[in-house]
Write a structure and sequence with these properties.
The protein has one domain: Nucleic acid-binding proteins (OB fold (Dihydrolipoamide Acetyltransferase, E2P)). The protein is about 5% helix and about 55% strand. It has a five-stranded mixed beta barrel with strand order 1-3-4-6-5.
Length: about 140
């Protein structure tokens, strides 16, 4: 059995960029930075930042583009995918996380509920403030 599963929690390094495929499917791209703190052999506390490219498609792409902004914390669940292309005879590679679901991180002390996508159906649930109900 093989498994290709990724979980990351970090902050967006730029606003999501929403585009559409030729067939009209929404595609969003952005990057997430994660930090790792460790102590060196010499006892010095250090930090390393890693940058992850993220892509999502269809309904989840629309939701991400609408609600995620640069600096926002986010938890992403997905899979790794490497794609390649050639430009002027030079082969390029890019490994990215294809997001299957995500959760917002805290923003201003408010915790939001998860957004997920299951093939044809996506449920987006958020905390409801009773003062926001129009009746």
């Amino acid at each position: 059995m093989n498994l290709n599963k990724v979980f990351i929690y970090g902050n967006l390094t730029r606003d999501p960029e929403l585009k559409a495929t030729e067939a009209g499917t929404s595609v969003v791209n952005f990057a997430v930075a994660t930090n790792r703190t460790y102590t060196t052999k010499e006892g010095v506390k250090s930090e390393h930042t890693e940058f992850h490219n993220v892509v999502a498609f269809a309904k989840i792409a629309d939701v991400m583009a609408k609600y995620l902004k640069k600096g926002r914390a986010v938890f992403i669940e997905g899979r790794l995918q490497t794609r390649s292309w050639e430009t002027e005879g030079v082969k390029h590679y890019r490994t990215e996380i294809v997001a299957d679901s995500f959760q917002f991180g805290p923003q201003g002390g408010k915790q939001e509920a998860p957004a997920t996508e299951n093939d044809e159906d996506m449920s987006f649930v958020e905390e409801i403030n009773p003062e926001d109900i129009p009746f």
